[in-house]
């Protein structure tokens, strides 16, 4: 039995990457999936270009995946946010079409960032007959068996909260992510930019990088979706903390291979950012630590100056982008969240096991 998987792809002004990603998806060997493409109010005519691809009017030019006519044309089911609110069931026609020959396109009325944009797709998928929800960056290319291997791992391990594909750079020689790694002052993708040597066994990880991660639908109902206050960066780390605090674990499925170009997200990680991105980076780092890290680490004599540094930096950029009131609201709400977790039975155990000193 092959449980249905909703594959959610978020697009924002990068339709060429998106159709290359779609072309690789429509050639996978897993038979039971839905493709849900969420457009975050693109300004580059992305939706029309993606429709042209579905209608065979644009061929994918790619070094990594060969264009195929076999799954074309792709039937388009298109909705606005407003139409989604009144949509109760998909049409009978939708269910008669094979997975590889249909797509659902959701048009957001504005750019909600990575967190909010994906949440639109997740909420839609939660009301379908899918068992799993897969988040896939639009700058990825998948191996034909990547989803088969992800679901194999999902079935194999008990109490699973998320499963991440092995993420490699497009040349396949270097690692993009072996899962999330939690450090004393940040979080990052484990193994990034290291030379890739084949890994034989799946391994437990703190959490899954949302560039290619599958979540059981019931887990997301239990842990909640992305915190939209993050907008972009560390939103998947925050979700991984909440999944852990619900008692679930995460696994890297080493036989599920996805290639990640890591364009915009890489520039964020390297701090080559605008004032707005600097605001989100510092804000999100600060509130993640405020919610989940040992308070003795944040406010003890050894690290207090560093905490103050990050706070000042966050305030500075909030002033630059005129989001000071937003920042105050977000910090206060997360203080209350932390207060509510003071007696959480798993928080100390997770801190002790996963935070790298």
Automatic annotation (TrEMBL):
Q: Which GO terms describe its molecular function?
A: glycosyltransferase activity
Presence of the UniProt keyword Transferase in the record: yes
Q: Name one Pfam family in it.
A: Glycos_transf_2
Tell me the keywords, alphabetical order: Glycosyltransferase, Transferase
Glycosyltransferase 2-like domain residues: 6-68, 92-221
Which InterPro entries does the entry link to? Glyco_trans_2-like, Nucleotide-diphossugar_trans
Similarity-based family = Belongs to the glycosyltransferase 2 family.
Name of the protein this chain belongs to: Glycosyltransferase 2-like domain-containing protein
Species of the source: Methanobacterium bryantii
Organism lineage reads as: Archaea, Methanobacteriati, Methanobacteriota, Methanomada group, Methanobacteria
